[in-house]
Amino acid sequence: LRLVAVLRAVLEGEKAAVLKREHHLPLSFHRRQEELKFSVGLQRLQHRVREIQALRDGPAGEGRAGAGAAPQELPTLILEAVKELEAVKQQVLKRIQIWKRQQQLAGNGAVFEENLAPLQKRCEDLVEIYFQLQQQVMAASAELGPELLPRLLERFSEVLSSLVKR
């Protein structure tokens, strides 16, 4: 823990020195930070999907207080996963908006990176998780009940339509 504290202090000092010299952090730092936030959100979503599948597929009494625990846990877990899916979608949409703005500024002579591969990869990764989560929701439709399932399906369609439209 001391080593971590020392390294953190050194990095804080370097960050302060860069800020003092540049008066702001370089753009590459912000882009890297954004990429890390996205990858962490995506990993969290993948973990949620695996948790949902394990909860659905696992034996009824194993590792739980009783067989009745699963029906209460599953909807909560699915709602959390959908909330995280929407948050990651917002990150992708924000990145798309930034790309569009940079494209507009390029018409005025600003530097513009035309490489769409990272943005396309983000969208593909998000849609892959989207379909995995939607499959889990459809497989668990009996446990979710008639009130929750239509709301979840509506949220899913909103996520996909907003990605496609942007």
TrEMBL record:
Keyword Lipid biosynthesis: no
Keywords of this entry: SH2 domain
Source domain of life: Eukaryota
GO annotation (BP), single: signal transduction
GO molecular function, one term: DNA-binding transcription factor activity
Keyword Aminoacyl-tRNA synthetase included in the entry's annotation: no
Any Pfam family matching the protein: STAT_alpha
Domain STAT transcription factor all-alpha, chain residue ranges per copy: 80-139
Protein name in UniProt: STAT6 protein
Species in which this protein is naturally found: Tyrannus savana (Fork-tailed flycatcher)
Origin organism lineage: Eukaryota, Metazoa, Chordata, Craniata, Vertebrata
Protein encoded by which gene: Stat6_0
